[in-house]
């Protein structure tokens, strides 16, 4: 399974606008998804993908609407795509805008990946969803495709712009509700397909956009590249935190503030960044402790109470209990088994 990664708050807001337009109170959904409601007031923050997937699942369950994903596409805005939205706004043609999707879509979130391919006079955009929830996936794909089509029409200032066809892996929600797809997309829609993809005439890529600004686009792309580099660095954060924890444990200490300081962060910032990656400091500490404990038990004659002390446990019984939960046997049993 592909990790859910992180998602921009801008992507979450699109679902929030759709829910509020339907009269749904999103506050309990946000809380149950493990999100701080205050995050909706930020502009450039990110949330954990598991939380985003959980929020959509709860929204789907509450709305009881089999085409919820399709309808949320009606609420797309340039800001829904973070800086990618503003990059595409400044492109000269639809082709330029489409070419920016794959390189910069990670800024919107890690929900999926786009592949572009050309077949004669036809362009195909295939989207692979990274999420594993079988209820969420079809709604997420519907949202992505509906948002693309609506946004492309807005960019080109042409409501008649339409794909050649849309293929969806999901099964038909209902023969009557299939009309909603045709009404919005103005093209054949195939359900139960082998992949999720949109095909469109290659000539459509020459469509002129409403606000071309090449200089602004270059500036925005430079900013986007900086943000991408930051995300790639953040993705390695757990590895660096584990390394710092291991260095501390070798000295018999375990302090989150010192780990944060070693990484040039405040404790609060470290906690927030780890949360965005779906982990906690305590979880990483437990993982490093377990790894080091097993190494000591295999490769040293250090007494078990001394190992517990070295790993920062105040009592040997706590070490025994924690080790057995993970390994299924006590430290002593583990050492004898390895011998």
Automatic annotation (TrEMBL):
Pfam families: Arabinose_bd, HTH_18. SMART domains: HTH_ARAC (SM00342). GO terms for cellular component: cytosol. Residues 239-337 form the HTH araC/xylS-type domain. GO terms for molecular function: DNA-binding transcription factor activity; transcription cis-regulatory region binding. It comes from the Bacteria. The keyword Signal does not apply. Keywords: DNA-binding, Transcription, Transcription regulation. This is AraC family transcriptional regulator. The lineage of its organism: Bacteria, Pseudomonadati, Pseudomonadota, Gammaproteobacteria, Pseudomonadales.
């Amino acid at each position: 399974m592909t990790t859910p990664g992180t998602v921009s708050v801008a992507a979450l807001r699109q679902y929030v606008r759709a829910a509020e337009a339907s009269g749904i109170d999103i506050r309990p959904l946000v809380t149950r998804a493990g999100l701080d409601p205050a995050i909706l007031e930020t502009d450039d923050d990110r949330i954990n993908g598991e939380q985003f997937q959980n929020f959509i699942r709860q929204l789907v369950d509450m709305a009881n609407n089999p085409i919820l994903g399709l309808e949320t596409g009606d609420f797309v805005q340039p800001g829904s795509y973070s800086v990618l939205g503003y990059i595409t706004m400044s492109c000269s043609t639809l082709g330029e805008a489409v070419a920016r999707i794959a390189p910069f879509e990670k800024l919107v979130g890690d929900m999926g990946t786009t592949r572009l391919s050309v077949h004669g006079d036809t362009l195909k955009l295939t989207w692979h969803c990274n999420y594993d929830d079988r209820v969420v996936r079809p709604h997420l794909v519907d949202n992505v495709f509906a948002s693309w089509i609506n946004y492309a029409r807005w960019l080109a200032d042409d409501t008649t712009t339409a794909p050649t066809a849309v293929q969806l892996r999901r099964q038909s929600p209902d023969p009557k509700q299939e009309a909603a797809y045709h009404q919005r997309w103005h093209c054949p829609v195939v359900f139960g397909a082998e992949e999720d993809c949109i095909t469109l005439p290659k000539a459509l890529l020459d469509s002129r956009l409403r606000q071309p600004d090449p200089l602004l686009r270059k500036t925005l792309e430079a900013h986007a590249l900086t943000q991408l580099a930051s995300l790639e660095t953040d993705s390695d954060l757990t590895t660096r935190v584990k390394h710092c924890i291991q260095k501390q444990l070798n000295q018999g200490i375990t302090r989150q503030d010192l780990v944060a300081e070693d990484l040039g962060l405040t404790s609060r910032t470290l906690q927030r960044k780890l949360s965005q990656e779906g982990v906690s400091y305590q979880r990483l500490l437990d993982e490093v402790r377990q790894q080091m404990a097993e190494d000591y038990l295999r490769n040293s004659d250090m007494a078990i109470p001394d190992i517990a002390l070295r790993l920062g446990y105040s009592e040997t019984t706590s070490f025994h209990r924690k080790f057995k939960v993970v390994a299924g046997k006590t430290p002593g049993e583990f050492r004898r088994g390895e011998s």
